[in-house]
Amino acid sequence: MNFSARLPKELSPSAFSIQLQELKSKGSYTDLTVSSPAQVGLLPGLSSYFLDSLKVANAWGNSPTGVLKVREAVCEYYASRGGRFDSDQILLTSSTSEAYSFLLKAFCDPGDVVLTAMPGYPLLDTLASLENLSCYPYFLKWNARSCRFAIDLDSLLSAPENAKVLFLVSPHNPTGYCVSEGEWAEIIRFCEERALVLVVDEVFGDFAFDINKRRSFELNGGNVAVFWLNGLSKTVGAPHLKLSWMAFTAPKKELLLIQEVLSFVADAYLSVSSWVQAMAPALLKDALLLQDPVHCRLKENLKILTESCPSAPVVEGGWYAALYLGEVDDEQLVLDLLREDRILVQPGFYFDFDQDGWVVVSLLSSPKELAHALEVIHSKNK
């Protein structure tokens, strides 16, 4: 039997994954890889939203771009945060992964290249590969003096001619970096020069720690088609509800064509259910209330991180932190931490950091567990 060449050549677990699973099975452990507020009890009950939605969901039909009332609710969500979109600039999808795939189908041909940040979330490479595309890196560089990550703008210049899309994640997973206004201006200029589509993943946008930091959807997109991705998974901490969206801007002469193309792609799937769309307006209206327990947890853990690791990279947003522990094998360090101390963190090689010694921890974990884990990690690194 022949399978598609778009799939990885090897799908079996790596030796590291096998060891990790064996160690996890040996008893309880402190989990610093938490990826959802629901895993740590920070998600309020959503039963009332669900019951209310059932009353109206059957009356709502599917449409390629999503129900108008929901797209208007997404516009109101952005308006409350300084963004200005019309309902015809919103398209609903079942997940941000699906939004990525729609955009890659719309703008790329097999063999084209997508530009992705390194280090970065490995899912983007998988999504590109499944569309028969290749990823080419640009780099986030860590400045040990300022304790901040920043885009190495020069690394964009080597992008191949068949690059079609630039992916930008801000706040970034896993570094917590947020794009600056200066970097945004340079990225827009680069995309204009190279006729690239810009896709901005802002799923952690509501969890930026500097409330005065302007979101990229408030900034000038110039003559570039820009797509901002978000969804209920992070906005209200409900990944199981399976509703995301893209908001987009483009030069006026291109906007209508983009709407037609995306509507055509979405119409082939119609994957967003009526009942979750019926829930969405009320959830988005209450987003700040639903986010409050998460903000409190992040604020407390960020203080613990800053006090425990004053030289750690500054986390500007999101709910992950990357720690550099020196010239150590992060793969072996992760296994030793789990084997000897029952603490689970993510190794830096998962995210293609440019050197060994990086680990990633979740800021959603309980403050007591985080404080203890950081103490243990640093005691091992002395």
Write the layout of secondary structure elements.
Elements: H1 15-24, E1 30-31, H2 47-57, H3 68-79, E2 90-93, H4 96-107, E3 113-118, H5 123-130, E4 134-143, E5 148-152, E6 163-169, H6 181-194, E7 197-201, E8 226-231, H7 232-235, E9 244-249, H8 252-267, H9 274-285, H10 287-308, E10 320-324, H11 330-341, E11 343-344, E12 346-347, E13 358-362, H12 367-380
Parallel strand pairs: 1-11, 3-4, 3-6, 6-7, 7-8
Antiparallel strand pairs: 2-9, 4-5, 8-9, 10-13, 12-13
Summarize the entry for a quick read.
The chain has 382 residues and is α/β, with parallel strands linked by helices. The chain has helices at residues 15-24, 47-57, 68-79, 96-107, 123-130, 181-194, 232-235, 252-267, 274-285, 287-308, 330-341, 367-380, and strands at 30-31, 90-93, 113-118, 134-143, 148-152, 163-169, 197-201, 226-231, 244-249, 320-324, 343-344, 346-347, 358-362.
Tell me what the structure shows.
With 382 residues, the protein is an alpha/beta fold. The chain folds into 2 domains: 15-43 and 288-380, Alpha-Beta Complex (Aspartate Aminotransferase, domain 1), CATH 3.90.1150; 47-287, Aspartate Aminotransferase, domain 2. Helices cover 38% and strands 17% of the residues. The chain has 12 helices and 13 strands. It has helices spanning 15-24, 47-57, 68-79, 96-107, 123-130, 181-194, 232-235, 252-267, 274-285, 287-308, 330-341, 367-380; strands at residues 30-31, 90-93, 113-118, 134-143, 148-152, 163-169, 197-201, 226-231, 244-249, 320-324, 343-344, 346-347, 358-362. The strands form 3 sheets. The protein has an 8-stranded mixed beta sheet with strand order 2-9-8-7-6-3-4-5, with helices on both faces. Strands 10-13-12 form a 3-stranded antiparallel beta sheet, with helices on one face. The longest helix has 22 residues, at 287-308. It is globular, with a radius of gyration of 21 Å. The termini are far apart.
